[in-house]
Amino acid sequence: MIGKLSLNQATTKYWTVEQAVDGCVRAGIGAIGLWREPVAETGLDAAVRLVRDAGLRVSSYCRGGFLTGPDEAATLDDNRRAIDEAAALGAPCLVMVVGGLPPGERDIVAVRKRMAQRVGLLAPYAQEWGVRLALEPLHPMYCADRAVLSTLRQALDIAERFPVDAVGVVVDAYHVWWDPEVHDQIARAGERIASFQVCDWILPLAEDALLSRGMMGDGHVDFRALGRSVAAAGYDGDVEVEIFNADIWAADGDDVLATMVQRYREHVAPVEVG
Amino acid sequence: MIGKLSLNQATTKYWTVEQAVDGCVRAGIGAIGLWREPVAETGLDAAVRLVRDAGLRVSSYCRGGFLTGPDEAATLDDNRRAIDEAAALGAPCLVMVVGGLPPGERDIVAVRKRMAQRVGLLAPYAQEWGVRLALEPLHPMYCADRAVLSTLRQALDIAERFPVDAVGVVVDAYHVWWDPEVHDQIARAGERIASFQVCDWILPLAEDALLSRGMMGDGHVDFRALGRSVAAAGYDGDVEVEIFNADIWAADGDDVLATMVQRYREHVAPVEVG
After folding, report:
1. Cis (ω within 30 of 0) for the bond into B153?
2. How many CB pairs under 8 A join A and B?
3. Would you call B222 and A106 a contact, using CB atoms and an 8 Å cutoff?
4. Three-state secondary-structure class, residue A164
5. Cβ count near B32 (within 10 Å)
6. Is residue B147 classed as helix, strand or coil in its secondary structure?
7. Cβ of B143 and A181 within 8 Å?
8. Residue range(s) defining the domain that contains residue B69
9. Which residues contact A155 (CB under 8 A, 6 or more apart)?
10. In principle, which of A13, A179, A222, B23 could form an S-S bond with B106, CB 3.0–4.6 Å?
11. What is the mean pLDDT of residues B77-102?
């Protein structure tokens, strides 16, 4: 087992849950971050059995959120189902990508207020089921279309309104590495840190900006510095590698995991948390 | 004259200084933001005469910066020459794009310290020549390769170490619209605001991320809200339209200025500063 390393399923997008679980076992990776779509394809009960039988930890469940649109009832209902699934899988947290500006809306202050209110409407349900809502600030590049939650400071300003076991934050190196406040805000976060994810900022940006992420060591992110701060803040959970990248998706899954393990040891493990 | 509207020369990239000055006069635009490269092509003295004879205000000079690289002496020398040119042109400020991470460097904290120190080495010279260094936070999308200065808070933390007439900040809507703190930091900035620039955040991102900017009204930015805050902070300078966009560059310059005037009136002018 390679310490706290976890495979986020998005890194091997074309693997089923079964393939990803088997791949982790072959590579000696002890944890996995699961996504709703492949879990639905496998079937929730089957997915639960697969990870349990393999003895894997489920480090996170991806993802809930998209809270900013006009249909509040449907949004909340969908998120409650995601919480149910996360609870069944034994995931400690549901990663929340909060959503961007709805079409035609430019009043970002109002959209952010609405988003925070809806986090509040979900928090008691999440707490009851033992699944933390993990608010994920996304890189400001995605503010208009993916997440109006843009910094750790902003995420913590919201999370701190709720019990610590109900709402936490994700520290994703890709999204926060540029933030002049990142180390201060990680220290502030403390036990609010629900997930630590790593992948690298590489240039030029991919034609689809969503797929611009790179393997650790291929880009500009100082993982050692971020890892030190996350560990100093008391986080001892898993470290997920989550890479959206068409070239990595096209590569052989076992090769990707082997590279991931090597790069994790080289760039992240010296400051391994936990 | 259309109030405080200014054409930043980058919007009409293929126009010479003479063409841009003439275009402003034809369109009734009273101010222009000049760039070093076209000014060098025209010749500094000729450029000074052109803007003076046309009765235009020079709203800014673009640009200095790129302070993060290994050759400090050459960097400072080049910036001093830019200050000289800005003074000759009567520009109130030199826009500073501070530079990204030098090749191979991942310690962004150290690079940012170096950048701030070099601002300090230039500030007395700028003050002496009556040209404010206008620190421009760039969108975090450009942090690795263009500017490790990413937020207004960070820019003000540096600017406030120096006299207010030596170092100010640029509020560029494109770069700061996503920031949850933007209105608070604009209020904090007060008379530190050296320049207010507008253009829109449009999606999808262009293949060259530098050219992703759009005409006001084509994207997601709430210019009215930003303009209100900038005016409330006491800024009464010009409002520059600065758009890097291949389609706009390919269009007829007079048409671009006509659209710019119309969009300025529609989206920005109701909260016009000054």
Report:
1. no
2. 79
3. yes
4. coil
5. 28
6. strand
7. no
8. 5-271
9. A135, A136, A137, A149, A169, A170
10. A222
11. 98
Q: Please tell me the predicted confidence (pLDDT) of residue A241.
A: 97
CATH number at residue B103: 3.20.20.150
Q: Where are the alpha helices (DSSP H) in chain A?
A: 17-27, 36-42, 44-54, 72-89, 108-128, 152-159, 173-176, 182-189, 223-232, 246-250, 253-263
Distance CA A223, CA B11 (A): 38
* pLDDT of residue A273 exceeding 80: no
Interface test with chain B among A108, A176, A268, by most B beta carbons within 10 Å: A108
> What total of structural domains would you count in chain A?
1
Q: Which residue of chain A comes nearest to B218, CA vs CA?
A: A104
Stated pTM of the model: 0.96
Give the pLDDT mean for B249-259. Answer: 97
B222–A108 C-beta distance less than 8 A:
yes
Q: Are B222 and B177 in contact (CB under 8 A)?
A: yes
User: For A220, which of B112, B144, B179 is closest by C-beta distance?
Assistant: B144
CB-CB: which of A106, A201, A209 is closest to B221? A106
Signed CA dihedral, B207, B210, B214, B220: sign only: positive
Chain A residues whose beta carbon lies within 8 Å of the beta carbon of residue B210 = none
Question: Would you say how long chain A is, in residues?
Answer: 274
* Nearest CB neighbour to B151, from listed A108, A180, A203: A180
Give the residue from chain A lying closest to B223, CA to CA.
A106
User: Looking at the partner chain, which of B107, B154, B204 has a beta carbon nearest the beta carbon of A180?
Assistant: B154
Using pLDDT thresholds of 50, 70 and 90, give the confidence band for residue A243: very high
Is the peptide bond between B204 and the residue preceding it cis, with omega within 30 degrees of 0? yes
- Distance (Å) of CA B166 to CA A75, B35, B99, B129, B199: 51, 20, 20, 9, 26
